[in-house]
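User: Predict the full complex structure for these chains.
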Amino acid sequence: MGYKASENDLIAYLYGELEGKDKEALEQHLLENAEARMELERLQVLRHTLGHVKDKEVIAPTIFVGDNKQRFFWNAPYFKTIVSIAASLLIILMVGKFSDLQVGYSNGELKISFGGVPEVKQLETTPPNPSLTSTEVQEMINASLNQNNLAMQATWTETQKQLDASIVKNLAVNSAKIDNLVRESSAASQAQIREFVSGMHSENMQLVKNYFQLTSSEQKQYIESLLVDFAKYLQQQRNDDLQVVQTQLKSLEQNTDVFKQETEQILTSIISTVGNKNSLGAKN
Amino acid sequence: MTDTLLDIAMMHADNLIARAKGGDQNAQGKVVQLWYKRIYNFSYKFFLDHDLAMEVSQKTFISMCKNLPALQENARFKSWLYKIAVNYCREEVRKKKGSRSLSFDVVWNRDAEDSPKWESSSHRFDNPESQLQQRELSDVLQAALLELNDEQREVVIMKEYEGLKFREIADVLNISENTVKSRMYYGLDGLRKILERKNINKETIGYGL
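Assistant: Here is the predicted structure of the two-chain assembly.
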């Protein structure tokens, strides 16, 4: 066994790290070798001497850990980039959130909008709107029709009243004229005419009344035609009346002419007879 | 004393490291609290310089927090942590080599600063306070430690003061256990010679105490 090996063993033995066979061998060697014992003793003394060096007290800087942490997290490039990306994403999200940004792809069209949801809804609701308004429009049409009907009714009633008034006036005028004419003519004819006219009048009135009653029941179109017919009819009647009156007057004239001729003939005959009688008397 | 404390620390650490690995910042903070003193004292003994020791410790723990999730076995945390510390220490040594004259100045100045104490200790007055004596002895020993070469120094500190097992030190330094033991032996041998030269022996220590 070389000296070198026992030197290392000696050191190991000195620090109590020699075990088993080596330890026994060294202990044996120490027993046999005084020089080795001396060596060990010197080393032990030295160790004792060295043991007088005391540890310097030092306080671990507490900031150190914090510093360390900061260096770790804030100086790590990955962390920085990740944080910056996250921050920018967050900003985008926030902006998107607050501006109500909508990005969507549907039916082959890309939609980017701010506050798009209501717009989309509007777009979607516009098609149903006409269908909704169609009923409304119908209602409106109905309402306007009703309004028109009411207006028409009003105008009709007005025209009816006007016509009524004019008819009454005309009738009055006509009757007055006829009356006058009849008054001028003979009492019999006058009475006849008056009766006729009054009959006519009352008949007409009845008819008109019936007409009005009918027209008040919803047949406005019919009323108009009726009124027109009635007007025509009245005109016809008047013409007829006038013709009748004329014929009457003519007949009266004829009568009067005849009467005159007769009276003339009678007068001439009377005169001639009187003349003849006188001549006869004279002769006789 | 330190060994038992370290054991307790390790016991806690197993659970704590698992949590710290999971990103628990509270646990990471506790790990730092637990190990800061050890790493600081390791690097302080290595450089005998508070500022450098603080720098190395801070760098070590920043690196620890960053790389903790990559740690394969929780049981190897201790050697892993020391490996980081040793690497930062070596880095500082390389920096120092870049400005060699300055480094010697620093060492020289430090010695000059400590010179009154040196004088007092070398004269060994009869009535110094034991605490002061101890501080003096501690300073002498640490100065002696600084005279070792880096390889021996880191092994001696890790073994003698940090209580790492030879296997763990071998793991930290990526060398064989025998090399560690060999470096330890020569380191101790060197220290003994230095202390002898400084006239520090069993008797003087006993007197001082």
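Residues 1-99 of chain B form a domain with the Rna Polymerase Sigma Factor; Chain: A fold (CATH 1.10.1740.10).
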